[in-house]
């Protein structure tokens, strides 16, 4: 199936010499590979994203997908069509977004070189998998890191995580990727229209935008709500059901009921990427407190939307923001989270100061346009280095491992 996907900016100036043909592999159900691929395509290059499963709406680059295989026959057919979609494109290079997983193994099996890999966080931070990663997951990550000609990491903290797998210093570059800043500029009219559409009250809106999974410590946010409500009774917490873990969601609902805060907590369906700027525009405080993280888009988007954000105390965040300068950092416990959120709700001057500093910081550090140009330069540098061959034996094992994978 072919899906259109598009450029994040209306006009990126073209750079470099001849246009390139970039094959990309990544999850089409999230915005990361789509937006980044669109940014590269907007520089005048031809980009094809090859993936499995559902794909979000987008425009400007070619996206080829097919249903997730449910049995060995479907898996074999998906493997053949995936390889064909990559090879028929005759790419100058292959760029994989996420160092691991089924898609990573499919990309490795193609043997296309040069190979560029964007490290996302969970791929090199095993603690994020909560023990569910198996030896095949680790094998795929090790193979992608080893076979890559260029590794892109969003933060120095991720470089440290990558180093656990080997010394790849010579081929790592820090690329934050950034966001489409103009999309997230605060637009009050759009925000109020979304408030009416979602039937939200006029009081303070608190937003937990991360996936509804244990990694993101959303139970701590729920447990912080009684303390927040004691200071600001009109506050309403919105919890995104994005990639919901059913068992964890049931536990959160049980906690909400047990604490008698049902009227102050609302579980909402995943917000469309196009509506996220409007939602952030009416959010009083964003709360994101995972126990492990890279440098998430949530942070960039919140700062660009001038939505004050409370973050957990993780090293990766300190590379771009400081406590009480652009954000509030909190210890990972309910009382600390409640105190940080309440400060922002009650201290208008503090919230305004963080909004101003955060917007300035994101304008300086996280321009998708600028980062796309940097990646183009890195592409050309890798191509100038020649094509390092990919051994057939390990590629055969990559293909075989797909039959054993759970996902």
Outline type = globular
What is the CATH homologous superfamily assignment of the largest domain?
Glycogen Phosphorylase B
Report the β-strand fraction as a percent range: 5-15%
Question: Which CATH class of the largest domain is shown?
Answer: Alpha Beta
- CATH-level-2 architecture of the largest domain: 3-Layer(aba) Sandwich
The main sheet comes to:
8 strands, mixed
Number of structural units classed as domains: 2
Low-confidence residue ranges: 1-15
The beta-strand count equals 14
Write the layout of secondary structure elements.
Layout: E1 2-5, E2 21-25, H1 31-41, E3 46-50, E4 61-64, H2 72-87, E5 93-97, H3 101-110, E6 115-119, H4 135-147, E7 150-153, H5 156-163, E8 172-174, H6 181-184, H7 188-197, E9 205-208, H8 218-231, E10 236-240, H9 246-258, E11 265-268, H10 276-281, E12 285-288, H11 297-304, E13 309-312, E14 328-330, H12 334-346, H13 348-365, H14 368-384, H15 392-402
């Amino acid at each position: 199936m072919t899906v259109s996907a598009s450029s994040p900016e209306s006009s990126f100036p073209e750079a470099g010499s001849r246009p390139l043909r970039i094959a990309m592999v990544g999850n089409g159900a999230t915005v990361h590979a789509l937006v980044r691929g669109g940014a590269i395509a907007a520089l005048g290059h031809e980009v094809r994203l090859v993936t499995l499963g559902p794909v979000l709406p987008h425009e400007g680059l070619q996206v080829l997908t097919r249903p997730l295989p449910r049995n060995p026959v479907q898996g074999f057919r998906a493997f053949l069509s995936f390889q064909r979609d990559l090879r028929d494109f005759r790419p100058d290079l292959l760029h994989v977004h996420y160092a691991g997983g089924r898609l990573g193994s499919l990309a490795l099996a193609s043997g296309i070189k040069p190979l560029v890999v964007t490290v996302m966080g969970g791929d090199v931070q095993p603690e994020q998998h909560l023990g569910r990663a198996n030896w095949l997951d680790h094998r795929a990550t090790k193979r992608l890191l080893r076979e890559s000609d260029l590794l892109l990491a969003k933060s120095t903290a991720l470089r440290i995580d990558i180093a656990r797998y080997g010394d790849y210093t010579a081929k790592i570059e820090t690329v934050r990727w950034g966001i489409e800043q103009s999309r997230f500029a605060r637009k009050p009219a759009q925000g109020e229209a979304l408030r009416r559409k979602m039937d939200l009250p006029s009081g303070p809106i608190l937003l937990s935008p991360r996936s509804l999974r244990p990694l993101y410590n959303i139970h701590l946010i729920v447990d912080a709500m009684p303390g927040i409500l004691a200071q600001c009774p009109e506050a309403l917490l919105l919890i995104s059901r994005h990639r919901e873990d059913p068992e964890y969601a049931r536990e959160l609902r049980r906690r909400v009921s047990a604490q008698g805060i049902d009227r102050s907590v609302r579980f909402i369906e995943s917000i469309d990427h196009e509506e996220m700027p409007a939602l952030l525009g009416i959010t009083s405080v964003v709360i994101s407190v995972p126990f492990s993280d890279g440098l998430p888009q949530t942070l960039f988007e919140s700062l660009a939307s001038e939505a004050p954000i409370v973050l957990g105390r993780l090293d990766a965040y300190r590379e771009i923001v400081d406590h009480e300068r652009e954000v509030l950092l909190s210890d990972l416990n309910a009382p600390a989270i409640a105190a940080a959120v309440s400060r922002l709700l009650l201290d208008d001057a503090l919230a305004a100061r963080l909004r101003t500093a955060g917007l300035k910081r994101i304008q300086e550090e996280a321009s998708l346009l600028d980062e796309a140009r940097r990646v183009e330069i890195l592409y050309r540098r890798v191509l100038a280095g020649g094509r390092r061959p990919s051994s057939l034996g390990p590629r055969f094992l990559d293909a075989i491992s797909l039959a054993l994978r759970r996902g």
